[in-house]
Every structure is written in C-alpha cells, then in structure tokens.
Amino acid sequence: MPEPQSLQPARCAELIRRSSSVIALSGAGISTAAGIPDFRGPRGLYVTRRYDPEKVFEIGWFRRAPQYFYEFSRDFVAAVKDIRPTFTHRFLADLEKEGGLAGVITQNIDMLHQLAGSRTVVELHGSYRSATCASCGQRFEDLSYGWWEQNMNNSTTPPVALCPKCNGVLKPDIVFFGEMVNGYEDAERMVAECDLLLVLGSSLQVSPASHLPYSTQATTVVVNRGAVALPPTPNRYFVDGDLDGYFREVAGCLEKGRVRW
C-alpha cells in the first residue's frame, strides 16, 4: 500500500482549474469552524448535555417519546440559529456559481451550504428545512430555525413542535437511526461522474457516506483534522489541517476573478 500523499494549496488550485466537474463531500468538520458543536466529540452536544443518542435520534423512540428529540432540538436550534457559513462554505458556493463545482453532498443537518449560496446540495441526513406532520401528513417547506424556535416555544413543556393544521407532532425531515438516508443514488452518481472529489471535514467513519469515495477513480483530495478511514492510493491526497486556512490559500492561488471572495 502506498504512503499517504499530502497536497500543497497551489497544487489543489491547479486541480480545481483543470477539472470540469468537482464534487464536494462535507462532514461535521466544515461547520465546527462556524461554531456548531459536533455531536460525538469531546465538546459535542451528546456529551455536554448528556443526551442519549438512541433516545434523541432513533426513529422508534421519536414515535414513542418525541420530547427527547425536541429537548435536543431546543438546544441545537439555540446554538446554530445565528451562526453564519464559514469561508469554506462560501468558497464552494462561489465555485459552483463560476461553474467549477457540480454539487455538494453533505452529512450535516445545519443548512449552512444553502445559506452560503450553494444550490445543488444533497443532504444525506436531511435537515430542519422541511417537516412532515406525523398525524395528518401535511408537509411544510422552506423552514427556518426561527420558525422552529417559535413553534417549540408556543408548544407545551417539554417543547414538542406541533402541526399548525391539526396539532399533531411534527417530524423534521432529518434522517433518524433506522431510516434510509436521502438521495444516496444521486450522491453516488455525482461522485461517479466527477473528475475531482473534495472530501471536507469528514473522517469517513459513518456509513453509507463512507462508501462514496469508492464510487470514483477520479483524483480525491481529503482535508480533515485527524485520521480518515480511507486507504491511500496514487490518486488520493490527504491534508491534516484547518479547512478554512487551507482553502484561503487555495483561493489565493486561483486566478483573479475565477472565484469571488
């Protein structure tokens, strides 16, 4: 097995320039720089608030006792409602506008890619952008964190978001344990058709997202703090470092006018 190869920002910029279809696969690391705590890390919400992951995100528990999820959601929404996208989020959005990025596949539920301006986003684990009533089936689209906060505050204690139509329990379109991820076939196709894959802020330890890099023979650039569960090959590069710092350097190496800053 070959040794892992690193990649200088100037070389990454050159790969981006020469590529006609770049795909980005993002994980929690792209958002922690914005101030969003991860779930399982030493400062993650599961640890600091002593949440039980099974009760919070297992679909059977949600159907029986949705208050566990909504106790978590109250804290999560409060933590992220005023957070803005990072430099790397904006870098990807601007690259898409310039025609260099074909799309983003994300494991995150924080909606920061869309807030940054990305238009083609596959949310494997869903998000709070939409919800469905468990009682009447009414679907609600284009929701904001402010909408969720108001709905939970107007509800009972504990704060369970309720359907404005029938007062049934709302389930945000987040993928719970026991449910299929969203858009995996689209994500797999996007990766298979790309000529450059950027894996950003993901250790690739969560299935099925961890399988996506195996769907392409294209050059793959992994930028993440810490180990990544992906073996080295001649066309894979690994950068152990800060995403925003790295892509600020990449941006500086791109020709003027290629991407707006």
Task: Tell me what the structure shows.
With about 260 residues, the protein is an alpha/beta fold. It folds into 2 domains: about 1-35 and about 85-125 and about 180-260, Rossmann fold; about 35-80 and about 125-175, SIR2/SIRT2 'Small Domain'. About 35% of the residues lie in helices and about 15% in strands. The chain has 11 helices and 9 strands. The strands form 2 sheets. The chain has a 6-stranded parallel β-sheet, sandwiched between helices. Strands 5-4-6 form a 3-stranded antiparallel β-sheet, with no helix packed on it.
Distance between the termini: 39 Å
**Helical amount among residues, as a percent range?**
25-40%
Radius of gyration: 19 Å
CATH class of the largest domain: Alpha Beta
Principal-axes shape call: elongated
Question: What count of structural domains?
Answer: 2
Strand element count: 9
Secondary structural class? alpha/beta
Number of helices: 11
CATH superfamily of the largest domain: TPP-binding domain
